[in-house]
Design brief:
Blueprint: H1 4-8, E1 21-27, H2 43-58, H3 63-68, E2 71-72, E3 75-82, E4 91-98, E5 105-114, E6 119-128, E7 130-131, E8 136-137, H4 142-148
Antiparallel strand pairs: 1-4, 2-7, 3-6, 4-5, 5-6, 7-8
């Protein structure tokens, strides 16, 4: 994976700000495409999930660690705006950015871009913090807020 600061040079037209963002590289696999070699539309949500997982990892967090500590993060909203097609064997960049500081939910914005700087899709997800034992919404864990305070939106 490339350094996000270095990768930003490849996408100067991008609307996603560098702060609290992560750039993840993904190669389109054959099984993600239709007979014409075009990525099936549902796979864009999977690409966003990879970006979100790597964004958490950059802050020293992971879904599995949060689950061990009793926090679940189900997606409660997903939107995708398709602009151009991704194709088999394309090398893509998923830019993931935290939209705002989390409360009882956390919101991410995404851009999916190829190496020709062609914008393929934009998206947004909202995930709710759920207390695993009570199966009820809860506030963002303090340890995540503490990690985010060193960075500005």
């Amino acid at each position: 994976m490339f350094n996000p600061v270095e990768m930003y040079k490849f996408f100067p037209k991008s609307n996603i700000k560098l702060m609290k963002s992560n750039v993840t590289e993904i190669r389109v696999r054959y099984g993600e495409t239709d007979q014409m070699g075009v990525v099936y539309h549902a796979n864009y949500a999977v690409y966003f999930e990879v970006g979100r997982t790597e964004w958490l990892r950059e802050f020293g967090l992971s879904y599995s660690k949060m689950e061990e500590e009793g926090i679940m993060l189900p997606v409660i909203s997903l939107s995708v705006n398709y602009k151009n097609s991704a194709r088999y064997d394309d090398l893509l960049k998923v830019k993931t950015r935290l939209k705002k500081l989390p409360t009882a939910s956390i919101e991410f914005e995404y851009e999916l871009i190829n190496y020709n700087e062609q914008l393929l899709a934009t998206g947004n997800t909202i995930l709710a913090f759920i207390d695993k034992k009570r199966n009820r919404p809860t506030r963002c864990p303090k340890y995540l807020l503490d990690k985010l305070q060193d960075y500005s939106l």
